[in-house]
């Protein structure tokens, strides 16, 4: 860690390894705070957000008062981002898509349209309020449909490519708002639809309901089908890490080639290679994508990548954007509720499966897949589960929409 005093201000340069260590510390600090502040647990605010935001607030105050300015080496953050999005590509199974049937395709098309609408709403309001349109995209599908991971990835991309000041702070702040709003609104929206249209449900309220789990097909780790014995977790983790590293390496070649024709985030090439690898395994049966190894790689890389991104936020850059952000996020909330009602209920039909798709769609359309599943679980415990809707939201929200969202964000950023 290098430091120097200049003009009465302490300048600190944090190396990549030190930035990683700080991310670990702030993450576990966030875990501790969540255990002691019940409202954070109630609304499922991620530990990286809790610890990272508190840390970045302290640094932003010190920076704003010209006491200390900190610069983080982001090289490991970039590596972790590539690793996470590679695991997303490894979930893109064509066989899983086939299991969802026409309803999955319809739902996928609908949320893809929603991606475009979120950006159009954000861009329109941003420009009307005299801001760069890219702020509207960051408070659009980058943070709403994309969530924290996409916000942390595209924030720096917009800052470097389009010169957007505070892009990462805008994206992560909007994503945090979206996660809370999705959890607050999803359940009540489902209740309103069920009572408003007298939807027939699988069971009456207060009957016990068995918890649904993610389909086994969405377990993600690279293991051999031919092993006589169940592999150890270390073995699964090593194989998962190896396949992720190989996909990342090949992905850099793909990204370099595509970069000659279009500006894309660095992880796109790795996602494409990973999706190809996943489906080669599915159709040749030479290896399978199952188990816990890749889940661990995905979770660890996401936690550290997002925490490192939040730690380095310059929150003081949000001061002049506060009112426009409030307006844009309010409009995004109205859009999400209107879309869920008009499309998932009125267009798809007044059936219980579609109610579950709506509450799940609100969850990941404004936050993350896990929020969508939490909304569905809350409704399911009272009125009965919908295995079909659960599968569709898991598949579309976990990886399909991320692929589409990345391409739409990149294209609309150039308009």
UniProtKB/TrEMBL annotation:
<feature type="transmembrane region" description="Helical">
    <location>
        <begin position="7"/>
        <end position="29"/>
    </location>
</feature>
<keyword id="KW-0997">Cell inner membrane</keyword>
<comment type="similarity">
    <text>Belongs to the glutamate:Na(+) symporter (ESS) (TC 2.A.27) family.</text>
</comment>
<feature type="transmembrane region" description="Helical">
    <location>
        <begin position="79"/>
        <end position="97"/>
    </location>
</feature>
<feature type="transmembrane region" description="Helical">
    <location>
        <begin position="103"/>
        <end position="123"/>
    </location>
</feature>
<keyword id="KW-0915">Sodium</keyword>
<feature type="transmembrane region" description="Helical">
    <location>
        <begin position="170"/>
        <end position="194"/>
    </location>
</feature>
<keyword id="KW-0769">Symport</keyword>
<feature type="transmembrane region" description="Helical">
    <location>
        <begin position="264"/>
        <end position="281"/>
    </location>
</feature>
<keyword id="KW-0812">Transmembrane</keyword>
<comment type="function">
    <text>Catalyzes the sodium-dependent transport of glutamate.</text>
</comment>
<feature type="transmembrane region" description="Helical">
    <location>
        <begin position="389"/>
        <end position="412"/>
    </location>
</feature>
<keyword id="KW-0029">Amino-acid transport</keyword>
<feature type="transmembrane region" description="Helical">
    <location>
        <begin position="135"/>
        <end position="158"/>
    </location>
</feature>
<feature type="transmembrane region" description="Helical">
    <location>
        <begin position="355"/>
        <end position="374"/>
    </location>
</feature>
<dbReference type="InterPro" id="IPR004445">
    <property type="entry name" value="GltS"/>
</dbReference>
<keyword id="KW-0472">Membrane</keyword>
<dbReference type="GO" id="GO:0015813">
    <property type="term" value="P:L-glutamate transmembrane transport"/>
</dbReference>
<keyword id="KW-0739">Sodium transport</keyword>
<keyword id="KW-0406">Ion transport</keyword>
<dbReference type="GO" id="GO:0005886">
    <property type="term" value="C:plasma membrane"/>
</dbReference>
<keyword id="KW-0813">Transport</keyword>
<keyword id="KW-1003">Cell membrane</keyword>
<feature type="transmembrane region" description="Helical">
    <location>
        <begin position="49"/>
        <end position="67"/>
    </location>
</feature>
<dbReference type="GO" id="GO:0015501">
    <property type="term" value="F:glutamate:sodium symporter activity"/>
</dbReference>
<feature type="transmembrane region" description="Helical">
    <location>
        <begin position="322"/>
        <end position="343"/>
    </location>
</feature>
<dbReference type="Pfam" id="PF03616">
    <property type="entry name" value="Glt_symporter"/>
</dbReference>
<protein>
    <recommendedName>
        <fullName>Sodium/glutamate symporter</fullName>
    </recommendedName>
</protein>
<feature type="transmembrane region" description="Helical">
    <location>
        <begin position="293"/>
        <end position="310"/>
    </location>
</feature>
<keyword id="KW-1133">Transmembrane helix</keyword>
